[in-house]
């Protein structure tokens, strides 16, 4: 046993180091152990990209002002070489970046923390808004009037008028009047706002951001606000729903443009966001970013990278599950860590659609592969062929799914193509060499391991711990090392060797 | 029989599990760099010739596609031969030609084939059709085994072979593998071949199992299995024991066949031998492996001494 002693000590040391760092981080930053006792905070990052043309640059981005449902805190900007200021331009809050001369591709970041309010705040309206004057062409005017007439008949309030208009605009077989106007309008939100103003209801276009955890490169969505009985109400121009959905952030109200860039071209803005769990105490001192734990934590990275790390930090959980299932339970899997990748893909697609699409892609691939094997191609070209076929299968499934009205068809693209191609190749060789039964055993084993890993990764506590305490992965590492030295029986061997019972009696 | 066996039962039996095999034996006694010696049959073959270990003689190797055209003339001098892919596994791609009939060749199944079929088969082999992972391969053409008539009626189609586990040069456990109709002529236990555990002292049948259950008669021929006894048992163990010096691998499975005239012949080696041999023997490997580990290596430099030691030490206990 002496030979194993240094190893055992090392394993224990790794685990202890991980735990100690985690405890220190907890004491220092107040990061909680469980996701329950904290408030979720949205970190939103707006990224402005443009190509500077070598002249003085002024970029100005509209940013949220008084929000009914969110507190704005800790606004920052990451933009080396630029001066920046937050200015208030007649109720329109904007961030302005300026630089004497810049050339080439530029990326500017505005980062802010949004904390959902416990109860919505009423926003004072200083002067009663009036409906804007709307200018229509001759033809448009008569068509709009007719459309408004129809909507008015079935509505009583500004709110219901908006809903009825949306309904008319969204009719599947198409209201001809609405279709005509829509074709000439910028967007359905734009048209809705014009129609409402025309009807004497004060309405304005707004840009809203859908908050979804760990999303990158999201665009803003056009929506409409209408004025009714002393408050502004948000209307979804696509569904006609009135009121602010929980995770919608009003980013920009009508007024000036969303983004102005002087001295640059091809400007665009995109948004990344991430949900963080922060206890009220940390929230209070979130400006204190000088702590060592903050600086070496994942939280100090740009949000775009953080979203990626949120996924990456879940990988060790999957790896541990694979080791556990293979070494201790004795489940056979096709490819050592393929189950982890499948599990990660499931996180994006959710379980049942992911499972269905994965199984169907692999099955179709196996059928195609059986034709390929008749051509006796070399291995490399066989796999390359399979990759192309897999892309075709996935595109076909996505299109069919979309036509049938399932948007989940699209999510198959999250599966790593090359992994799928290899899976098909291995399964097919297995089929030829060991028969269909072995394919079922190993394929089923892989899926079971993937599902277990997926279920674990989805537990809020698990993702909370791996993300807020990355050092806990050292504990997983220690567990994996320890399992690597396990020389006892696998659970499956208790069944495999059942025949020996006759011999020991 | 219960559906599950408990860990204490397995311990009492001395069963070697897969984790223990991988970590305690393969990991500790088999150096990674030596694996290619046994994974590539051509390398094994050349090594056996250097060490004077009996094996079916290598007649020819085909390494390049262009050599295939002239192969017909070279085969003319052979009456029977076997074609094997060097990196094949599980008996795939092995063709056994038992004789000639004019221009035609006769396969072990009785089918008559022309030289064209052989050329195509060689071409497929070189392209990697039978090798693991489809990597390019080499075809080996070697002498035919004329298998010992003692096995007549014991094997369906395939050649019966004897698997001996050799640990640090000591043969520790042996099993005869008989192909059946269910295993499709293959000597692969999980496909339904019969495993016959052999007593280490004289090569007698201890027990026979098929699909993890004890069988008494061969399911295809009806011959009683418990009357099996291997001739030349000591020579066979000696052959397997010498593979340790040959490869340097501490834990291997040796596959041996008995030739009618030439005696035991080494067919191939396996660096990750399976565990089912323990069920066929009704005995666990662990006590035997521990016994070998406790021995002083310096006392057993000579394979013959090691064989004598195991024949004495591992003889079935009279009960």
From TrEMBL, chain A:
Keywords: Membrane, Transmembrane, Transmembrane helix. The keyword Translocase does not apply. Residues 257-500 form the 7 transmembrane helices usually fused to an inactive transglutaminase domain. It comes from the Bacteria. Signal peptide: none annotated. Residues 25-184 form the Inactive transglutaminase fused to 7 transmembrane helices domain. Coiled coil: none annotated. The keyword Signal does not apply. The chain crosses the membrane at residues 6-24, 311-329, 341-367, 379-400, 406-424, 436-457, 469-489. It holds the Pfam family Transglut_i_TM. This is Uncharacterized protein with transglutaminase domain.
From TrEMBL, chain B:
The keyword Ligase applies. One of its GO terms (molecular function) is ATP binding. Residues 45-296 form the ATP-grasp domain. One of its GO terms (biological process) is SOS response. GO terms for cellular component: cytoplasm. InterPro entries: ATP-grasp, RimK-rel_E_lig, RimK-rel_E_lig_ATP-grasp. It holds the Pfam family ATPgrasp_ST. Keywords: ATP-binding, Ligase, Manganese, Nucleotide-binding. NCBIfam families: rimK_rel_E_lig (TIGR02291). This is Alpha-L-glutamate ligase-like protein. It comes from Chromatocurvus halotolerans.
């Amino acid at each position: 046993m002496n030979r194993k002693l240094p190893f055992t000590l090392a394993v224990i040391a790794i685990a202890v180091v991980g735990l100690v760092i985690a405890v220190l981080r907890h004491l220092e930053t107040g990061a909680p152990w469980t996701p329950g006792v904290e408030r979720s905070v949205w970190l939103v990052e707006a990224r402005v990209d443009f190509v500077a043309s070598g002249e003085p640059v002024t970029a100005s981005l509209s940013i949220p002002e008084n929000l009914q449902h969110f507190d704005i805190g800790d606004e920052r900007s990451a933009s080396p070489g630029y001066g920046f200021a937050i200015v208030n331009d007649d109720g329109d809050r904007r961030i302005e970046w300026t630089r004497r001369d810049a050339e080439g591709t530029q990326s500017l970041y505005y980062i802010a923390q949004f904390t959902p309010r416990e109860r919505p705040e009423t926003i004072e309206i200083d002067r009663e808004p009036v409906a804007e004057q709307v200018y229509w062409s001759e033809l448009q005017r008569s068509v709009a009037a007719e459309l408004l007439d129809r909507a008015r008949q079935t509505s009583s309030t500004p709110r219901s008028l908006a809903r009825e208009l949306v309904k008319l605009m969204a009719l599947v077989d198409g209201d001809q009047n609405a279709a005509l106007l829509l074709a000439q309008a910028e967007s359905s939100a734009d048209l809705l706002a014009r129609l409402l103003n025309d009807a004497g209801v004060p309405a304005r276009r707004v840009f809203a951001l859908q908050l979804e955890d760990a999303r990158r490169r999201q665009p803003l969505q056009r929506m409409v606000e209408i004025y009714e009985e002393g408050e502004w109400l948000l209307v979804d121009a696509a569904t006609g729903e009135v009121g602010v959905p929980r995770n919608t952030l009003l980013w920009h109200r009508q007024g000036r443009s969303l983004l102005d860039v002087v001295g640059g071209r091809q400007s665009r803005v995109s948004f990344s966001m991430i949900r963080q769990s922060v206890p009220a105490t940390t929230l209070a001192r979130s400006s204190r970013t000088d702590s060592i734990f903050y600086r070496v934590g994942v939280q100090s990275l740009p949000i775009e990278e953080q979203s990626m790390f949120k996924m990456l930090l879940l990988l060790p959980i999957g790896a541990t599950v694979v080791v556990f299932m293979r070494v201790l339970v004795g489940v056979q899997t096709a490819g050592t860590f393929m189950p982890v990748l499948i599990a990660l893909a499931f996180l994006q697609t959710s379980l049942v659609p992911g499972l269905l699409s994965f199984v169907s892609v692999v099955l179709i691939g196996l059928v195609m592969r059986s034709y390929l094997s008749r051509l006796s191609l070399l291995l490399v070209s066989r796999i390359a062929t399979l990759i192309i076929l897999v892309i075709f299968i996935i595109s076909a499934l996505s299109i069919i799914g979309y036509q049938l009205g399932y948007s989940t068809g699209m999510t198959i693209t999250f599966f790593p193509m090359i992994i799928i191609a290899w899976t098909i190749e291995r399964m097919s060789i297995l089929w030829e060499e060991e028969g269909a039964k072995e394919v079922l055993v190993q394929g089923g084993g892989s899926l079971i391991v993937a599902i277990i890993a997926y279920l674990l990764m989805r537990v809020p506590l698990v993702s909370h711990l791996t993300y807020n305490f990355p050092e806990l992965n050292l504990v997983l590492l220690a567990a994996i090392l320890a399992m690597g030295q396990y020389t006892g029986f696998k659970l499956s061997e208790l069944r495999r060797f059942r025949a020996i019972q006759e011999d020991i009696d | 029989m219960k559906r599950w066996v408990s860990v204490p039962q397995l311990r009492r039996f001395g069963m070697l599990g897969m984790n223990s095999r991988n970590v305690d034996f393969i990991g500790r006694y088999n150096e990674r760099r030596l694996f290619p010696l046994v994974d590539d049959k051509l390398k094994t073959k050349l090594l056996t010739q250097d060490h004077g270990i009996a094996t079916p003689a290598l007649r020819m190797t085909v390494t390049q596609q262009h050599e295939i055209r002239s192969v017909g003339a070279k085969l003319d001098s052979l009456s029977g031969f076997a074609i094997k892919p060097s990196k094949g596994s599980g008996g795939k791609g092995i063709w056994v030609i038992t004789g000639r009939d004019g221009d035609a060749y006769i396969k072990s199944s009785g089918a008559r084939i022309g030289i064209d079929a052989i050329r195509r088969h060689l071409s497929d082999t070189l392209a990697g059709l039978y090798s693991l992972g489809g990597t390019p391969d080499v075809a080996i053409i070697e002498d035919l085994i004329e298998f010992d008539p003692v096995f007549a009626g014991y094997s369906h189609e395939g050649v019966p072979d004897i698997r001996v586990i050799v640990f640090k040069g000591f043969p520790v456990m042996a099993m005869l593998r008989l192909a059946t109709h269910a295993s499709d002529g293959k000597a692969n236990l999980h496909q339904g071949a019969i495993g016959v555990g052999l007593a280490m002292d004289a090569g007698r049948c201890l027990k026979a199992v098929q699909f993890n259950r004890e069988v008494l008669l061969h399911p295809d021929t009806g011959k009683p299995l418990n009357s099996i006894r291997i001739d030349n048992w000591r020579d066979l163990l000696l052959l397997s024991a010498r593979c340790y010096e040959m490869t340097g691998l501490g834990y291997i499975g040796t596959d041996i066949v008995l030739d009618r005239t030439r005696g035991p012949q080494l067919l191939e080696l396996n660096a990750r031998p399976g565990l089912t041999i323990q069920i066929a023997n009704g005995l666990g490997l662990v006590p035997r492996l521990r016994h070998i580990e406790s021995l002083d290596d310096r006392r057993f430099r000579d394979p013959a001494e090691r064989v004598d030691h195991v024949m004495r030490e591992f003889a079935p206990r009279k009960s």
